[in-house]
């Protein structure tokens, strides 16, 4: 604080006047949140890259156990994939409604997105439960350990995304489309589309290549 500013504040205090601060601008940069979230997504990319690399090494380590060709139900996985990709489209509709400043439409499309994400998780849990009951749990072989690690980590991300989405719905209902909520919607949009891109890699690298002899 400069000497002139200090003298001004002291003079105001002596006269009983309220303190006045002439610098009223926000120190937090407008793009700080988005930049931080991009950095988080890049760190998440490293996590999934490590899991993909682990699966690439262990994907054929069956230990005389079942293979992907014997275990994977491609029609079920294709249905699961369709739900997640469709949820990405519905989230896009929510963003369009947000840009048009239509709160109700935004919340409706977000709710549909959450339901599609929940359907995706339900089918994934059904698949995991079926594999474990068939004796193909993550402890059975290196292949299954890598499979459960990669697919399960993606499923946890979808779960966290749904929790975030539900929390955001409450925030929208309470405060509306204020700038803070719009920024949160944009961050969740990046996260949700990121999960779709990762799942396309999982579907191709794990499931489609897994059924090859």
From TrEMBL:
Question: What subcellular locations does the record give?
Answer: Cell membrane
List the coiled-coil residues.
none
Q: Which residues form the Heme-copper oxidase subunit III family profile domain?
A: 1-211
Q: Where are the transmembrane segments?
A: 37-57, 77-96, 108-126, 146-170, 191-212
Membrane topology term reads:
Multi-pass membrane protein
Q: Which PROSITE patterns match?
A: COX3
Q: What keywords is this UniProt entry annotated with?
A: Cell membrane, Electron transport, Membrane, Oxidoreductase, Transmembrane, Transmembrane helix, Transport
Q: Which Gene3D superfamilies does this one have?
A: Cytochrome c oxidase, subunit III, four-helix bundle
User: Where is it predominantly found?
Assistant: membrane
Q: Where is this region: Disordered?
A: 1-27
Q: Which InterPro entries match?
A: Cyt_c/ubiquinol_Oxase_su3 (IPR024791), Cyt_c_oxidase-like_su3 (IPR000298), Cyt_c_oxidase_su3-like_sf (IPR035973), Cyt_c_oxidase_su3_a-hlx (IPR013833), Cyt_c_ubiqinol_oxidase_su3 (IPR014206), Ubiquinol_oxase_su3_dom (IPR033946)
This protein's source sits in the domain of life called Bacteria
Quaternary context: Heterooctamer of two A chains, two B chains, two C chains and two D chains.
Q: Which family does it belong to?
A: Belongs to the cytochrome c oxidase subunit 3 family.
Give a short account of what the protein does.
Cytochrome bo(3) ubiquinol terminal oxidase is the component of the aerobic respiratory chain of E.coli that predominates when cells are grown at high aeration. Has proton pump activity across the membrane in addition to electron transfer, pumping 2 protons/electron.
Name of this chain's protein? Cytochrome bo(3) ubiquinol oxidase subunit 3
In its UniProt entry, the species of origin is given as Alloalcanivorax profundimaris
């Amino acid at each position: 604080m400069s000497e002139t500013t200090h003298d001004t504040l002291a003079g105001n205090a002596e006269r009983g006047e309220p303190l006045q601060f002439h610098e009223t601008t926000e120190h937090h940069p407008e793009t700080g949140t988005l930049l931080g979230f991009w950095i988080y997504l890049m760190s998440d990319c490293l996590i999934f890259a490590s899991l993909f690399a682990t699966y690439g090494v262990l994907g054929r380590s069956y230990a005389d156990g079942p293979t992907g060709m014997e275990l994977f139900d491609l029609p079920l996985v294709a249905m699961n994939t369709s739900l997640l990709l469709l949820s990405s489209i519905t989230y896009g509709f929510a963003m369009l409604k947000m840009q048009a400043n239509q709160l109700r439409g935004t919340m409706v499309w977000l709710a549909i997105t959450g339901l599609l994400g929940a359907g995706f998780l339900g089918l994934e849990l059904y698949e995991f439960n079926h594999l474990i009951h068939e004796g193909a749990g993550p402890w059975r072989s290196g292949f299954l350990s890598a499979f459960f690690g990669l697919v399960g980590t993606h499923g946890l991300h979808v779960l966290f995304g749904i929790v975030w989405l539900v929390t955001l719905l409450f925030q929208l209902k309470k405060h509306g489309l204020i700038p803070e909520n719009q920024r949160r919607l944009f961050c969740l949009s990046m996260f949700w589309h990121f999960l779709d891109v990762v799942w396309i890699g999982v579907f191709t690298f794990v499931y489609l290549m897994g059924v090859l002899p």
